[in-house]
Amino acid sequence: MKIKLFILVLLFNGLLIASDWSFLDINRIGAGQFIEKNPQNNGKDVVIIILDTGVDMGVPGLQKLPDGEVKVIDAQDFSGEGDVYFDKAEFGEENNEKFVSAPGNLKLYHYDKLTLQPVDSIFYIGVLHEDKFKNSVIPDINNNGKEDDDFGFIVFKSKEGWVAYIDLDGDGNLDDEQPVWNYKIKHQAIQFRGRDKKLNKNLATFAINIFPDEKRINFHYDGSSHGTHVAGIAAGYQLNGQKGLNGIAPGAKIISLKIGDCTLAGGATTTGSMLEAYEYGIEFAKKYDGPVVFNMSFGIGSEIEGQASMEFTLDEMLLENEKVLFCVSAGNEGPGISSVGLPAAANYVLSVGALNSKESARDVYGANIDQDKVFVFSSRGGELNKPDILTPGSASSTVPPFSTRENKWGTSMASPQATGAVALLMSAAYHDGLPLIGALFKKAIINSARPLKGYTILDQGAGVVFVPDAYQYYKKYIQRNEHKDFVYYRIETLSPMNEDNPARAAYWRLGNYLPDKHHKQAFKIKPEFRDSWNADQRNNFYRAFDLVADKSWIKLNKKSTYIKGEKPATIDVYFDQKQLDEPGLYTGKITAYRKEWSNKKMNKEFELWCTYVHPLFANEQNHYTLKSDLIKIKPGNVHRVFFDVPVRATSATIHLFTEGNKYANIRAYVFDPQGREIEQFSRLSSEYETQETIQLTGSQLEYGIYELDLYADFRSEEASYCTYLISFSGLEVSPNPINWLRMKNGENPRGTLSVFNYFDQPVLCQISGEISGWSKKTHVEDESEIYQQDFTVGSEVEKVEFQIELPADVFNLMTDFAINIKNYEGKILKADGLTYRKKKIVFIPPASGDYYLELIPAFASRDAQYWTATINENYYLFSKANIIGSREYFYPKTRKQTSFYVDGTLPVPPSGFRLFGNVNLNSLDRYRFKVIVPVELDAELR
């Protein structure tokens, strides 16, 4: 017994000094403290399943567990990126040397000298062409200075099962190679050879899987570094070979399930990859005699929040598999509210926002912040009661050898912190003989979290994870038998911004309207029973709750309620408008406690989130202008401004100013009424940009409440100061769009505008514009995984702009949507993807010629589905035709006619295209309005 204890102390000695490292902050969530007191519960016996871009199992930190065993126990690729197909080989002999060959004249010699031979005398042969990696970050996979190597391989069924011999050095001989098995069988990691080891490093580690029925072999690798970085945070042991530098749960094993194709922008998922990876992980969890937790640091923006196909799938999986838990990143679309993405909006997953801890900010970024902050990019809640919690969202972690970016930040880095925390809890529960219930681990983590001062629930959910407290909560839940009768709760209420789909929070962002005592808002709380419950258990279910609001402006129609059977509880809520008369963001919550226990946070069953946005209003009283006093923003903080777009407004201008000699290092973000960031942000600096202007016009401006967020960089040494001036124009122009011009021989093309000024101030404008080029709109209806559209760029074209738009319900069927522009050699020249359902892509061609646009929707289902999209392609010419107009005063409540002409000859568009451009009304006063009127001209002009 003493010998075993001594070995245990030696084994975990490297873990106990982890507190000296802040590059990967494990102490902010209490992980380091928990392991120090419970060294045997360092994640041991837990398997963490990483759904990502792959994991490089060859890097220091991901090779071994503390006990010396292999850390990465399985590696699968569901993205298809590493797929190579093989065929039946033919036999031959040359110069007394036997070979197998394949179409294309590939020959592999000395198969007859291999230790293993096929049981049926059948060899299969294939080749991994290095050209396959031309659109990856490592086009030269063996780092020998060439990008056209061929690595042949043979596959056959031996007495020990299916095996491969891979010509890793590309010399055509197999007798210098070792047999390679499916990775999970013998945990063989492979590297391609041929480099000068003194001069060139290895770039990546690969693993293989053989699928004989499909005649397919897959080469798993991490082609972006994202998955390897995530894995190191969750469970790395002695990262970079450093004793004491560990991830959150260094004793946990890892399974890498690759869902992202790294040849696509952002390592985008492919159709079915996410679904199939989760299914594979669930099947493993069912067979594995131990705890399993999933991490997925992937996602896109949410168009219909909480209603995406993948979100429903994840919820169903958790209902059916109660022992597991899914941890997912909340998204990087902040700091605007209502920006949590999919699938983080799924009800029962643990959605994780990103904390910027003081220690990490100091040692990784050299910043001296006054307290822990929520990272500016971390997605916020609103219509959804997400994120659930916060964990540190930056770290120095493991990356493949090709990468030099070991420091990363994002909710992608926060999610594996939470996953590691769950692994610690599961490890402790498993070793203590406690039942493993994923939903109770989630409940313990949320209820024990520590709120961050100065932030709303929309920013942080319950607050920062603290592992020691979470485990005490979990033990208490098991002690009082909650594992036997726990249920999930589905919360539904009115979504006033999308009445066709229910929300999970009261979210009012509609001018100054809000629920009052005559028009209450009803929350329905429905029990979601575990799959294992029978009809009697469901019918006999009863649970009562005490209800407590944390803000006095939240009014309830009852102080307690109950759920009986499958009938939902209904709770009516309204807001006291007298307490909400100042502009700003108001957030609060109603907490439901189990009635048989005390009203302590340990006993929280569910929460009802309430949000009211009281905007600034522009009207005749303030001449449609909103002006601030001096604003002070501490480093790392966000100052939010909500403003309502007045009726008849056709443009808005946001002016930002520094103040005298005061310091400023500010980024300004603008979010539309749905919480989507407008694709521009401005930087205000006392040193460089002392004034900034953001113009909103055309499709960027819609009725509703916008959010202007002013963020002071957390790396600044002092507070930032600024003021803003937001002004609106009410110039309504017709026709809109302009779709015809008058043409007479010998004269310039001319047009006429009618302008009405709906607002109360005269506006002096200069009218100008241009005919930019030609355009075409395409309506796509497709059922495939890849849609291609050819286009030709002539020497007269400067750039091509593609505007891609999907219906919201179609976008919700997907997990990603990748976009490529390629030449006809297959080289990607531009890669991007949809964060939301609309995207603008600008392509500057390297030369005139033929190219093609590639759209790659990734469906949440196993196979591609019917989908639609609209593509506007705009070709901007080098020689644009200028539009000349006059300088005009537009007086209040008055209509005025004005004219313009095109200076020069109109270009002739190709067949099927139309000319496009715009006429601009640029105000010459200090407000600098810009009203844009699109020009869309058919080839036949009148």
Word description of this protein:
Pfam families: Peptidase_S8. With 942 residues, the chain is mainly β. The protein folds into five domains: 2-80 and 223-485, 3-Layer(aba) Sandwich (Rossmann fold); 84-181, no CATH class; 512-614, Sandwich (Immunoglobulin-like), CATH 2.60.40.3170; 617-729, Sandwich (Jelly Rolls); 732-937, Jelly Rolls. The strands form eleven sheets. Strands 41, 42, 43, 45, 48, 50, 51, 52 and 53 form a nine-stranded antiparallel beta sheet that branches. Strands 1, 2, 14, 15, 16, 17, 18 and 19 form an eight-stranded mixed beta sheet that branches. A five-stranded antiparallel beta sheet has the order 4-8-9-10-11, with no helix packed on it. Helix 4 (226-235) runs parallel beside helix 8 (411-431) and helix 5 runs parallel beside helix 6 (309-320). It is globular and about 95 Å long.
The portion of residues forming beta strands comes to: 35-45%
Shape: globular
Mean pLDDT: 94
Q: Unreliable segments (pLDDT under 50, ≥5 consecutive)?
A: 1-19
CATH class of the largest domain: Alpha Beta
Fourth-tier CATH superfamily name of the largest domain:
Peptidase S8/S53 domain
Number of domains: 5
Task: Provide a count of the helices.
Answer: 14
Q: Note the main sheet.
A: 9 strands, antiparallel
Radius of gyration over C-alpha positions, nearest whole angstrom: 31 Å
